[in-house]
Amino acid sequence: MSRVRRQSVGDDRGFVACSVGPAIYAIGIEHVQEIVLPARLSPLPEAPDGLIGAVDHRGEVVPILDLGLRLGFGRTTHQKRKWILVRIGGRLLGVVVAQVFEVFRVEQQALRPAPAVGQNAVRTSTQVVAFDSELAYVLDTESLAQLAELRLEPARV
């Protein structure tokens, strides 16, 4: 397990670079709570496509979204796969990725609009950034919540 430090330097932003299927993605470090190794899942009845189960993580029930499966790349089975625990609207969502590469920083002006292609009602990314001579698609947490069909109202006990 690894903790992620949140700090801001001027007008730059920090991202966690990861892979999902053949694509590189970046998640804003301000949304990342933790990066963990996959654990045993409990079934999640009536879950939308891509939600592969839930886990109890430090006393919080966390749904786990296999982003590769949800985006049509197939189930993420890479031997280095990780779960990135993302805080969205007060709730945690575990996002399965094939690999986590590194935390990197870029200046705000380095973010560029992502190509607007396809008919998808939910776009996972509206921005891209250069990472290791490739484009990394910046994952939008609102889109992640929609992909997971995550209800953001307070949980009832």
Query: What best-fitting shape do the alpha-carbon axes yield?
Result: globular
CATH fold naming? OB fold (Dihydrolipoamide Acetyltransferase, E2P)
CATH architecture: Beta Barrel
Fourth-tier CATH superfamily name = CheA-289, Domain 4
Mean pLDDT: 88
What's the CATH class, please? Mainly Beta
Task: Return the string of H and E elements.
Answer: EEEEEEHEEEEEEH
Helical element count?
A: 2
Beta fraction: over 45%
- Output the structural class: mainly beta
Describe the strand arrangement of the main beta sheet, using strand numbers. Answer: 1-4-7-8-6-5
Structural Rg: 15 Å
> Mind describing the biggest β-sheet?
6 strands, mixed
Low-confidence stretches: none
Quick overview:
With 157 residues, the protein is mainly beta. It has helices at residues 67-70, 141-147, and strands at 2-3, 12-20, 23-28, 32-36, 51-57, 60-66, 82-88, 91-97, 99-107, 112-113, 125-131, 134-139. The chain is built from 2 helices and 12 strands.
